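S1.2 Input.
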Amino acid sequence: MIILAIETSCDETAIALIKTAPRGKSFSVLANIVHSQIPLHAKWGGVVPNIAKREHQKILVPLLLQALREAKLSESRIMNQELWKKKTRNSQFIIHSSILEKNEELRNQFEKSIIHIPRPQIDIIAVTQGPGLEPALWVGVNFARALSALWNIPLVGINHMEGHILSALIEQKKISNVKFQMSNLKSEIRNLKSVAYPALALLVSGGHTELVLMRKHLTYEIIGETRDDAAGEAFDKVARLLGLPYPGGPAISAEANLGTGHLSKSWL
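S1.3 Output.
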């Protein structure tokens, strides 16, 4: 089974193609492309929802085409190009006038580059439906809905916090270089670690800090969370107060590395 995954919950646009058995914990990554918007938001000291929305609209179609090429799914064996064009004529009005009505730039790219592509060998489309920035989320959700309608592929909404939990369960090889480790993830058969339940997950991300109780597989209960800002937001706000660049975490970390660990006499 091949899954197309779409993520637009905040300031990163991501497309992945994953091959997995219908049941089981083994999978391989056929393509995994992430576009970061950090340079666009840096001058504002944080993520601006409407800027994030516009950037998602610009980049989703190019990322999908790149992912299909990397996964060698650009050409479909289902039907030839001319037959597919005839089949999609009736779908164009529905997709353009309703699903992508409020995403003009995405709709234009969809019409130019996607509408005539024969259905790839994809079994399920998964898209982040929350939590996240609402304007950003809707771009990914509507893109996924349009693809689902065009290619007649089932669509599944995903909670991206659940994705954080499950990603921590991927068995990792003992490689010190994280970038090398992530690039090596592609095409290899990977497995999810077995978990003894009940288990407790600590989630510390840009927008959420939560303690989640898992009594069994895929069953979650939030038993604790921050009452105001998440850890990531706190870093960004402190960095802004100190006049440090966005994102705040790396900037504060770099400053901390300059410390000596000792107070000077002037502070005593």
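S1.4 Remarks. Strands lie at 2-7, 12-20, 26-36, 124-130, 155-159, 189-191, 199-204, 209-216, 219-225.
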